[in-house]
Records
---
Amino acid sequence: MATSSKTEASATETLNPSIEEIQPINGGESIEQVQQKAPEVVEEATAEKQEERVRESSNDKIQPLNILLTDGQDIGQKRKREDHPLWKTSLCSYYRSHSKSCSHGETCRYAHGEEELRPRPDNSWDPTSERAKKLMKSENGEKIDSLDAREDVLMATDAFSESSNPGLEKCFVHLPRKWSSDDLKSFLDEQARGYLNQPSRLQWLGILYKTAKKRKGMPIGFVSFESTEQMENAIEGLDGKSMGNKQIQIANVIPRSFEKKARSAMYLLQSTQQPTETFLSNEDLSISVSINGCEDGDKVDDDLVLDASLSRAKSVRDVVAPLAHMPYSDQLEHKKNSLMQSLKRLTRNARKACPDGVPLPEWILRSRDWGGLSCKLEGILESPIVNGYRNKCEFSVGYSLQGKPTVGFLLGNFREGVTAVEEPVDCPNVSRIACKFASIFQGFLQHSDLPIWNRFNNTGFWRQLTVSSAGFDKLQVGSIFITLALLVLIQQVREGRTPGQAVEVENLETSISEVLLMVQVCSVGFDDEIITREFERMAQALALGSTTSSCSLPLTALVVQDHRGISNAAPADAPLRPLSIPKAGIDPGPEALNNAVEPRINDYISNLRFCISPTAFFQVNTLAAEKLYSLAGDWAGLGPDTLLFDICCGTGTIGLTLARRVGMVVGIEMNASAVSDAHRNAEINGIKNCRFVCAKAEDVMKHLLEEYLNVPHKQDQAPHTSKSNGKDDANTGDKDTPVDNVLDLENCSNHEVDDAKSGSSCPSNGREEHEDSIKKSCISEDKNTPVQQYKDVVAIVDPPRVGLHPTVIKVLRTHPRLRRLVYISCNPESLVANAIELCTPSTDKTKKVNKNNRGWRSMSSAGLARHRAKSMPNSEPFQPIKAMAVDLFPHTPHCEMVMLLER
Ligand SMILES: C[S@@+](CC[C@H](N)C(=O)[O-])C[C@H]1O[C@@H](n2cnc3c(N)ncnc32)[C@H](O)[C@@H]1O
């Protein structure tokens, strides 16, 4: 397996000093001595100190090099060092704690004070710096950076005022987010009284206004006036007025000319269905806002510097590919360092959660060998393709900053008022095929009779375009890739570059043979006839675009998703309408729309074909995912006697690619389309030892473990084979199987925080029906099929970003026969939280969780996990054995991590 070994070696050297190198703290006692005395009390502080020491010590390590570089006057080398993306991105703790003196002087790689501090490659700041603290506060909604808010407002291009006369309306910026419209009105009324009470301004009329509306959760409100005089009085009295630590700013509200078209569409629709008022209020909604004088730059202060970096971060490239400015090897190092922090966090939190009187587990004691990491981080596997690797892109539909209907990426967070969408220009992770389809669709929207989606008032029709591409011929890719890799290597050697730098594999795009387009709309309130006509036109435009493009642009499936929700994240069961793709130049007529093929796409992993539905999860970087699954399989220690649980299995990718190495695979997945894909994929690839269960893992895991593992061992049983018949297959179990159907739903309902984050596509019409469906998915219909006993039970879990449900963690942790668990995570934070619960020792005296305690709302995920660990039934904890990262997302800070847990 290829790893960026060079990068890793140097990073490990500098960031992982052995414990001997760490100086004693706390009056000469070593960290260990202090910890053994009162671990809970001193742990956090010592860990931080330890990290500081590590940093200091890593600084020591590069010091001689720095001196050499300056003394040797190798200016090129020095510049190279200063160009390093991490140069001066952390504050020097030595400088801070030693009266602003540091023996490394200007060669110190850490910043001596806030002035020297540089933003990190992902545009974040050293968390201990003033800047980071300020930002953190604003993120928490307590304080908002003034210019940040201004920037956001400037980026709001959708409609969010309801005035019929924008000339007599103003936008108030920097209002408290939590204010309602009533708060804003009270404030304005109070201001009026205040002025009237001032003797020096007896002539003052007060702040009179017509309407005042506050945008929920945002720092802005709209105030309209009866007359220009009223408006000017308000500006005179309130613009610049202090509001907490901010000053109110009053912005112009400018009607957008480009809205006329949408307006006429609205009128058209208004005559067919909707009550007049709805659309009349909509038609004037589209405005953009500019702040009086904010471009003048008359307030050059610290905030402005901060704002400059924020605004830089808001180019589409910076939003979509924030690490793209770094060489690929530096991106890998950056990700590795941040994963190391997560592994340290796991150790610290598990130590903290370890119950009184229980000795620290071996792995925590051993963590000293790894500089505080909970286990060895074995490295990071590079992505085989660095550019254009995404096989799936979700493009938003909205207005650009120039007011043009655009298909691309949102420039920021809607909650902050950012709605501007920019074209996917210069985003190296997006394929040219995806960009091309976005541009064809954008061209179509400019002439559509239906309006684009407005995020502020949740009206409009066109919402999103998803481009999924696949169909690399593996042999072709293999040979192209080997040739290119060799060429790149030769080139790198010639140019003196290190391996691991960006590999352009442009030709790979030419081997894409399938493209599925999914267009998300909201059909509410629109006439069916108009919709059908627009779909016909859209299908023609997309088909024409694909055939007339200068580059190869296959279009093999087209489907519309109808979604009414507020955000574009549609539930898995949102209605889908497949459309047929007309032959270029031929008008197929409305009938043709109904003759569409099933919208599916075929991709290949480890020489298996995977048929994927539009809403099923599939990793966005297929070649890197292949590495990920094979690593997980290698670490799982599989054999013919292994029963493998593939938890959160999606279309069955992990289980099916490993099926031939195990006795039996049981996959659990809540998305019904993905489960039906998994069955089909087993069939396509002739795999018979897999069973896929459509349910939430938290609802069925306990029963499945019992079904397979609690039966008496029957030595003479024939090896189990199973059929994959396209249904929720439950082809195991016999009359003797003690399937326990007592549901553990009570437990689930204790964890609102997780439930709120996960949607279900499984039936849930009432508790009884739900319970019934869970029972069905766990009990065999064929009562005669014997349950095979397996010597070895392994679980590979690959949960969504929120991590595993606490019920699943509890079931896995407390089942004594599950000895090995491979955790694949795309979110280190949830991995840390779940691993705390899996790996912290428990006692007989478990604490009861207070169900009415709402304190968890303000807890970090690790804090919550520590809390839950206290109520874990007494059971043998897992130990983290090793971890490795796989980079599926070059140019972004994201990364997959695989961790092996054993007991
Ligand atoms: C990160 S994806 C992994 C999918 C699959 N392992 C793969 O690599 O293609 C997570 C999957 O978990 C599913 N999922 C989310 N919550 C779940 C739950 N509570 N129970 C079962 N599956 C769930 C999602 O639908 C999604 O398919």
Note: The first strand starts at residue 169 and ends at 173.
---
Amino acid sequence: MSLKANDRADAVAMLGLFPSTRTGRIIKTMEQKVQKPQNMAGSLTQNYNGPPITRPIALVGLMGCGKSMVGRNLAAMFQIPFADSDTAIERAAGVTVADIFDLAGENKFREMEYREIEILLGGTPAVIATGGGAFCQPDTASLLRDKALVVWLKAKPETLLSRIGNVDSRPLLHNKHSQKQGNETPIEILTRLNEVRTPFYEQAHLHVNTDGLSKRQAASKVMNAIADKLAIINTSTISSTSKGA
Ligand SMILES: Nc1ncnc2c1ncn2[C@@H]1O[C@H](COP(=O)(O)OP(=O)(O)O)[C@@H](O)[C@H]1O
Ligand SMILES: O=C(O)C1=C[C@@H](OP(=O)(O)O)[C@@H](O)[C@H](O)C1
Ligand SMILES: [Mg+2]
């Protein structure tokens, strides 16, 4: 969505006032029906036969690592709802993520992100695709680690950029929001974010490298890694492990 001047002024005024009916919001935000996997040719290669999913699965990692796309397919494999925190924020605010960055700034976006993730974590266990910066905010990270199984989808900056293609929907890949003086190209921004954010992403319970994998292979690899992890959790406590990281 792109807003005209008057609409933008209204949107700015509304950004602090989003509705608080918790149940209604969860229903609106989650895809209640189990979806057919999207953007994958043919049917899935694998059905999930692992331990039951009794806690939310949260996907974290840099823009373009596949949180939204792999997340939707994982939810279909697990037969549980899917939710995307960016979509939840956009529904609550009535404007796009890019517009929120433009109109209200990143700090406001992070507040909204925390609130929406908190709501999603309180609903039916779902696969939750977070935005790439969510797990780098200490409060949001501790909420996620506490309530969800957190999975880091790893990939090199070059891989990420080739997947993202058009950077319009990712405000942090534009210089005006890149938090650095001077002109950086999208690959330079992604490389810098990768360095700064890796220590945060390393706090995820599970690390899965998706470099060189197709969408289908990535979804299967993540599904198997989660099954293994849940089997271990059933006999011990959650700690970080890597899968091809
Ligand atoms: N393993 C993959 N192989 C090829 N393309 C991928 C893969 N994972 C995601 N993509 C594509 O990359 C783009 C960004 O993926 P997306 O799920 O939106 O990333 P994120 O939510 O982490 O920013 C989408 O067009 C998606 O179809
Ligand atoms: O990396 C980030 O800080 C962001 C990533 C975006 O989500 P994706 O990771 O799904 O692109 C979105 O939340 C916003 O543009 C900020
Ligand atoms: Mg996404």
Note: The chain has one domain: 60-243.
---
Amino acid sequence: MKSELAEMALDQKRTMPDDEAPDAVPVPHALVPHLNETAILLDIDGTLLDLMPTPREVWVPPGLSDTLNRLTERTSGALALVSGRSLNDIDLIFAPDVFRAVAGHGAEMRLSIDNEADDVHAPPLDKELKRRLAAIAKLSPGILLEDKGYSLALHYRLAPHAEKAIYESVSVIRADLPNAPIEVLPGKFVCEIKHSGFTKATGVRELMKREPFKGRRPIFIGDDVTDETVFAIMPDMNGLAFSVGRRAMGVNGHFDAPSDVRAFLARLLDPR
Ligand SMILES: O=P(O)(O)OC[C@H]1O[C@H](O[C@H]2O[C@H](CO)[C@@H](O)[C@H](O)[C@H]2O)[C@H](O)[C@@H](O)[C@@H]1O
């Protein structure tokens, strides 16, 4: 697809300095005829769903699953969720609907929605390491642990004062294990410790080699630091990147809030 959308975004950029350039969110009218050549890749928290005080409190607004299912149909299956959450968690959130996904920041991938055997999973994080990291939650009430198997997340949205202490404690443990293949991933009020070697970007690259995504032009929408790895690879695939809540580096445009992303997706199906 020779994109009118990218042309639109680039034309606007060429004519004015970057800090004055308007945000170029694609017009559904321009995109609609190309849905069958497009792959729609969507982050979950802060992009499709509004952020909540704790991971368990998120909810899927009425109509969103229907929109995602219809877009899956319209793209012949080339819609995937690209999330830091585990596949298991994603399925609980969207139940009974099941979507193709790159999950766990690239640790897991689901290419087929009918066959669990196709799912790919990274190995679990060392038990002893997890035990040590989990003890950090004792630093303050309000620190929540999320065990995803291949990673462990320490959430501090309810205890923001604990941020520095959490990162210092993680550094001490990290320093004890200089050769461990792990890395620290900061997110929105969360410090995650995961195996190194995979990211959302490695997951998306792998996904885009497989049917039904192969050969399509990706459009990725995300909001967090971890989504920046995917924003960065979109040009390699002739893709488009859009951030949410802020204008991230290198994106083609941005949405103000998840509600705007949901409205945009609905308009792809019903452009007026
Ligand atoms: O890649 P995403 O789909 O955006 O997932 C990123 C992380 O999302 C969840 O945590 C975030 O959302 C919570 C609910 O709104 C919020 O309470 C928390 O502060 C955020 O960091 C999820 O729990 C993580 O596992 C994901 O990595």
Note: The pocket of L263DTV3 is lined by residues 43-46, 51-55, 58, 83-85, 146, 153, 155, 157, 187-190, 224, 226 (CB under 6 Å).
---
Amino acid sequence: MGRGRHQPPPAPKSLRERFAALRNVPAFLHSIWTTSRWMTLTSVLLRLVRALLPVVTLYVGKLIVDEVVHQVRLGGFRGDLTAALHDGRFDHLATLLALEFALAVLADLLGRVVAMVDSLLGERYADLTSIRLMEHAASLDLEDFEDADLQDQLDRARRQIAGRSSLLSQLLQQAQDAITLVSFAVGLAVYAPWLIVLLAVALVPAFLGEFHFNAQSYAVNYQWTPERRELDYLRMVGASASNAKEVKSFGLNRFLIDRYRVLSQSIYQANRRIALRRAGWGGLFTTLGTLGYYAAYAFIAWRTVTGAFSIGDLTFLSTSFRRLRTLLETLFTGFSQVAGQALYLDDLFSFFRIQPEILSPPNPRQFPRPLREGFVFEDVGFRYPDAERWAVRHLSFTLRAGEVLALVGENGAGKTTLVKLLSRLYDPDEGRILLDGHPLAEYDLEDLRLNIGVIFQDFVRYYFNASDNIAVGRIEAREDEPRISDAAQRSLADQVIGKLPKGYAQMLGKLFKGGVDLSGGEWQKVAIARAYMRDAPLLILDEPTAALDARSEYEVFQRFKELSRGKTAVIISHRFSTVRMADRIIVLEGGRVAESGSHEELIAAGGHYAELFELQAAGYR
Ligand SMILES: Nc1ncnc2c1ncn2[C@@H]1O[C@H](COP(=O)(O)OP(=O)(O)OP(=O)(O)O)[C@@H](O)[C@H]1O
């Protein structure tokens, strides 16, 4: 068993590690590409055109200024506009202006289309990745979900999905900006190449600063994931309908709010420290950049005064410089943001890399129908991950085909664990479990679970309608109304549903509008109907009758016994009135079998069972 197998990526430290996170970018781009090829292609192509527009527009602007200056030199114009338009004096200028206008319109239109495609693609990507996340989560072992590290990682991955779609636009925008930058740089290089170097040198500190602080933000975010999850939990406990009853009557609100306040304050402080340092250093680095820009500006102005550059050149160069500086800045900060986000991709991708260990073998056996021998536990031992104590150990017994077996034992004796091992939610650490003579691990996992109908004591109260709440027992038969009402009849749930305003269509629970809540016992009847819905050869009820009144429990169990004729059944209960009806009773103590036999045999033996029975009976006298 893979204990502690989820090694989440450690909080990144060195610059190299931060760069290393960029290795996730190709995988990310690949998943974008598979999300929608044509949308990705459209976005890329349009951005390519869009990238070259600024320099062309600016160059046309320069030509306009030069033309205007030329016209002014010719003595300006004060005559008749119609005549001037006719003699073609302004044709060149008019063409340039029209071209500039067309370029501006094109840039706007392209920008809008690109934004639209990006947002659609981003949404699609987020949806598909969420589905993939759910699918992958569904494939993992129960043990995985009990691991706090995995919960943290899953939480980060989940939070990142929504944000990651903006990573796409950011990446593409980066590429677009880079092309625009190169086009400006080429234009500039023709005039004064070393100015570009000056700009780059002035901007490098800002880039490194951003990079550093992004990684620090991530580190803070990373280290505080458990606390952030606790915040979510506190918010949920303090503000959810299902908890309101207890929270109110215990007067827990103040406690919860104070705990929230203290915790959120520490996260805020950590973030504030980074924000302050980031603003301080960022301000200094930006000033350096501004200094570089004005040095370059002064140089261009000087060269224009001395006549080396035209006024059009001055406009072109100064604007090019301003744009170059902004572009470089956006590129640098954008790059460090991309690298920052790539760190979060680590969480997502490493979550996808976790593999379940409880799997079907290559050539699996099918569940034996009919069951011939039953289940045999041979010296089975199991310890929960990170637990010091064994939950069950040296556990040996047989669950014979066709019998109704009751499991009794004090809290923590290992009854539920036994059921989890039986349905292969966990694999034993020691010993083995045989089903009709073959290890459980040789059977097809899905088929095995399909043939075992378990209702756990902490069964789920789905906020679905009554019909679906029963249908979850065999969701493929969701439309099979007779089957659902039949299952409800067997578990006595039909009486509950009959009283609901909308019958089977009634939404249960208080989460959604129009929902009706049920009492604990009524919920149990609905849950037990799931077992009948499943119609499996092995039925297991893990304390599902605890909240039923005495009459209901008697009736439910009587029916259970009748209806499970020809099937194998396991029932866990603390009520001896129920337990005594079983064919055989196993008493668990400290994770192993202490006694076994029928009610009468065990009473006669005068052991632990007899003692527990006597205790309960005394309570009723
Ligand atoms: N998910 C878990 N992780 C770690 N330890 C667990 C987990 N579930 C149960 N245990 C421990 O394993 C032991 C057996 O628990 P189990 O739930 O099987 O008892 P049980 O007999 O069903 O008890 P109860 O009558 O209270 O339902 C207990 O000591 C319990 O603390």
Note: Residues 461-535 form one domain.
